[in-house]
Design a protein that fits this description.
The longest helix has 22 residues. This protein has eleven helices and eleven strands. The chain has a seven-stranded mixed β-sheet, with helices on both faces. By secondary structure, it is an alpha/beta fold. It is elongated, with a radius of gyration of 22 Å.
């Protein structure tokens, strides 16, 4: 690969707390190595529209602590077409951009992989998703903040549940993976955790919940990942409410939703994002292409993009056993 002198950085997919910290690290590491750095607004849509802005160390001042992404994120139907990708490549080349740093999840990396295959534009990925479901890194940017936000909300819900002896079904994000649900279930003292990685019969759920509420005559918290096979907390709540055996149980459903995406990133996420952003730039300088930077056992590792989205990252099943033990 030719020597890199000008690179672009973009954020794509769902926003995650810490993305701004990662952008800051990319920009300041690039300038420290005398590279020109261009911000690409609105992800792939911005590439097609040539929505570029030159950046320097001062342009990323005071963004470390902010949630969301200063570069914005957007879906791009145009980039899904060969014509759209061709237009994006032409715009990048016209702007002198020789390589990309993409901050996002598996959809982002599928896009950069296809872009590299078709147009030969090298990219390095930084894992930014609250779901923590990317192969090649122990944690993703935003996971720790989202987890703490969920636990804080569960603590508040617990106060109300205890005051009224209620059963709360609390839905957290996790369309395909139960990392948030599993960890906040333990941290929030949930009596039951339902995740996409395990199959639980509805009758078993009913029996478990009925036993908890009847025997203990107090509140219970059930944490449900949105991708659970029963369709999330609302559908589970409907199934319970339709059963006469639950007529005496005061049941509520609380969906935490996008509250988990927002807010200032935790210290852990700020440090993680900073390490990954700096490592991404240095990896590109070293000539790497189409890989994701991750942290495994506290060391920076590079994983081919295709492995990131084609291999499944497993939850810690010991933690799942722990939820059953502690409940």
């Amino acid at each position: 690969m030719e020597s890199i002198s000008r690179i672009g950085v973009f954020t794509s997919g769902g926003d995650a707390p810490g993305m701004n910290a990662c952008v800051r690290a990319v920009v300041r590491t690039a300038t420290a190595h005398d590279l020109e750095i261009v911000g690409i607004r609105r992800g792939y849509a911005g590439m097609i529209d040539a929505d570029f802005v030159d950046m320097d160390a001062r342009s990323v001042s005071n963004i470390l602590q902010k949630g969301g992404t200063v570069l914005k994120s957007a879906r791009s139907e145009g980039f899904k077409t060969p014509e759209g990708r061709r237009q994006a490549a032409e715009n990048l080349r016209s702007a002198g951009i020789q390589g990309l740093i993409g901050i996002g999840g598996d959809g982002t990396f599928r896009g950069t992989t296809l872009f590299y295959d078709e147009q030969g534009i090298p990219s390095i990925g930084c894992p930014g998703t609250i779901d923590n479901d990317l192969f090649g890194t122990d944690e993703t940017i935003g996971f720790d903040t989202a987890l703490n936000t969920a636990i804080e909300n569960i603590d508040r819900i617990r106060d109300t549940a205890d005051a009224h002896d209620r059963l709360f079904l609390v839905e957290v994000m996790g369309r395909d993976a139960g990392f948030i649900a599993l960890n906040c279930g333990i941290g929030g003292g949930a009596e039951l955790v339902l995740v996409p990685e395990t199959l639980t019969e509805m009758e078993d759920i009913k029996q478990r919940i009925h036993s908890l509420m009847s025997a203990q005559a107090r509140s219970s918290i059930v944490v449900v990942a949105e991708g659970d096979e029963h369709g999330g907390a609302t559908r589970i709540g409907d199934a319970l409410s339709a059963d006469p055996a639950f007529d005496h149980i005061d049941l509520r459903v609380s969906i935490l939703g996008h509250t988990q995406r927002g807010g200032a990133p935790s210290a852990r996420d700020r440090v993680l994002a900073s390490r990954l952003g700096a490592a991404a730039v240095e990896s590109m300088i070293e000539g790497h292409a189409n890989v994701m930077v991750g942290i495994i056992n506290n060391e920076v590792r590079l994983t081919p993009m295709r492995n990131v989205w084609s291999r499944k990252k497993n939850i810690n099943y010991e933690l799942l056993k722990l939820t059953q033990l502690l409940s």
